[in-house]
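Q: For a teaching session next week I want to show students how multiple molecules come together into a single three-dimensional assembly. I've collected the sequence lines for a complex. Could you give me the predicted structure tokens for the whole thing so I can convert them for display?
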Amino acid sequence: MKARFVALLVPPTLWLAIFLVVPAAIVSANAFTAEGLRHLASPVTWTLFARSFSIALVATTVCLAASYPAAYFIAGCAPRWRNLLLFLVVLPFWTNLLVRVYALKVVLPEAFQNSTGAVVFGLVHSFLPFMILPLYASIEKLPRRLLEASQDLGASPWMSFWKVTVPLTAPGIGAGCILVFIPAFGIFALPEFLGGAQAWMLGNQIELYFKKQQGSTAAGSALTLLLLGCTVALTGVYYRLRKTEGLV
Amino acid sequence: MRKALGLYTAVLLASLYVPIAVLVAFSFNASKHGVTWTGFTLGWYGELARDGQVLNELKNTVVIAAASTVLATVLGTLAALAARSHFRGKRLYATLVSLPVMIPDIVLACALYAMFDAVRMSPSLTNAVLGHTTFNLAYVAVVVSARLQGMDRSVELAAQDLGASPWEAFWKVTLPAILPGILAGAVLAFTLSLDDFVVTYFTTGPGDATLPVRIYSMVRFGVTPKMNAVSTLILAVSLALIMLSLRISRVPVAGGGR
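A: Of course. Below is the structure for the complete assembly, covering every listed component.
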């Protein structure tokens, strides 16, 4: 039993140690060199950080506002329709992100392209499923009798929505926001396609440092570490909200 | 109120599909400059079929996807099976295994870039396979785990009570029960690998581009019919794989499952 367990545990753990933990350690080591620290402290980095953060935040907010009514509607449908609608929500997610962004480039008016607005639109469009699914999951679990009770006690539909539905679906809202924010924050091809210079984000700068050799591994690592740190912090929050220990 | 919500949902869903539909339609448009319809043609696909570079990129895409799927399916299944036991540090283990799903792909891509750079492994298809296996492993583990959770463990124990060795019980009871999960995980891994752009871009050199990398470099030159055709092909393959995956994961299984 013991030997079998070790045989199961060791190969994947070893693989992740070599191709995830060690690389992350190397990135950290690169980032904490004199040059890496100089880039971490530089105003350029923090301007990009602030811009990426605000673009991701706006995209997450718009995504939440756009998704909630749809998730609410889907949760109230008969099971047959519900499954079909959920399938339609998820399907685009399994197709190539670049192809979907390119498709937006085909249909969006040129006057709208090359703007921060277009980047936000693209992010919302790309990550909608990440928001709708957790929202749907928590709205579907909502006990309807609580809504009826609040209305019996004199709350208007609007008031019982804000005082009952929203607080009770907060875990879904939180999870959806984190699931959208993380990839939006680290996005890089999309701002290049839809945004202009004013929508240049952290991901674009990292690409510049690493791939286009206009900088250094240390600089790129410093920015990567920044992204990783934010992700780990947000992931921690996510698991706390879901009260689980990882996905397996 | 409900009607308004339904209408809104329909519009939202349409907005997800309309751009893709327009893109697919334009890949059959005879006009060289997208916006007006001048007639049906398969010419752009013919042009693709004669383009040696595109064929080579297609080969690279499939080679990376196939190799990383095989590796990730084995490793991910082992990871999911190991996660069934209780042991010290399981929390940490579960976090480690799910990390590749959670972190933005650019973080994994850059970390791998930095490591391959540090050990002087120059960019290559092999590096891409190693990178793809890393994220695919996590997805396979998640899918197989879900299947294992739906499985009745007493069936395994019954097999052992009836005289099967642990190995036999695994081979004859557990494996057949979770096989649909493993296959679904493999198809998912293959799909994700075909779709991946970021990790490939950061681990390969200029000589070994894949189709998504090609799209990335072509989009700078704007919207072209040939691009539309490449994109449509990628969409068609992804769609076929999703359908396959749905088929597989719905296969009913004795001794548990959904």
